[in-house]
Fold this sequence. Notes:
By secondary structure, the protein is α/β, with parallel strands linked by helices. It has 14 helices and eleven strands.
Amino acid sequence: MIRHFTHLSDLSPGELLALADAGLALKAAPPRSAPLAGKSVAFCFMNPSLRTQVSSAVAAASLGAHPLTLTLGGGAGGTWGMETVEGVVMDGAAAEHLKEAVPVLGRYCAALGLRSFPSAESWAEDKREPALTAFRKYSTVPVINLESATGHPCQALADLMTIRERMEPSGKNFLLAWAPHVKALPMAVANSAVEMAAMAGMNVTIARPEGYDLDADVMARVKASCDARGRTVSVTSDVMSAYEGQHVVYAKSWGPIAPYGAAPAADPDFRAKWIVSGAKMRRTDSALFLHCLPVRRNLVVADEVLDGPWSAVVDEAENRLHAAKAVLLDLLAPGARTAAASSRRHAR
Ligand code: CP
């Protein structure tokens, strides 16, 4: 069976922690050999990206692989427009079906990455993740989720590495802090952040306005992970109290499930209530501040926080590179990954 890296729910907590260890080992001691020499990896993007695009390509190259970054259906310089639905009459814009394109890419490449954001028209349809599901279904090689509608596992792996560089997460307090924005953003990063924190044994608090609850399936997994480790999960709109005693504050904006795609209120008082500010961070237990980036300064988070002692957002972004290496080695050369992790254990 082909192993993919598409959803945190496919991993056990131990497997996630081992991947984070492998990423940190690769950061401390990059491999001297080229364990993926002779292989090519295609990273396919249906949406914009800075960190994911560059970190994936650099990670593959640093391991000796040849990276290709493809814009799916992107007009000149991109591939043909891609159809995801089976059985349709393809008389629209899409000239090629993923049913051919994905296995064709598999004849050239050892692994495929895909970024496919939600359409923001129907949560029920987006939750099916038609493009990622098609990649998994038709691919003959491992598929890596570079952010889909429901999750961003590569980001969560880098987030866990960033936390583990500073503290043992088990038993610590993790706050997912909803933040203002000009539009309804996907829930993927927020989902993966709380799933990762729960799998790492943290107490999880979500501070969000009424109407901004995460998907019930995600919350069920978070609750099950926390229950299994004797940790707590709480959801609140009492934003100031939510920051008390936190060890990690993860800021993210996301849109409501209903009305799906509706932009958050632009009211200045609402924005002031939910922005991550220095006053809020001072209520924490000297918390680490994380955000996946890109971030809108002074809308999502105040300059004082991003430029202050709490912030690890650039380290977090760097860890995307080492996380990507760990994922590629795990899928394509697991022996090499084990050797790297083992050398880190011996170095401790
Ligand atoms: N954090 C993240 O995925 O960044 P990009 O959207 O720039 O890839």
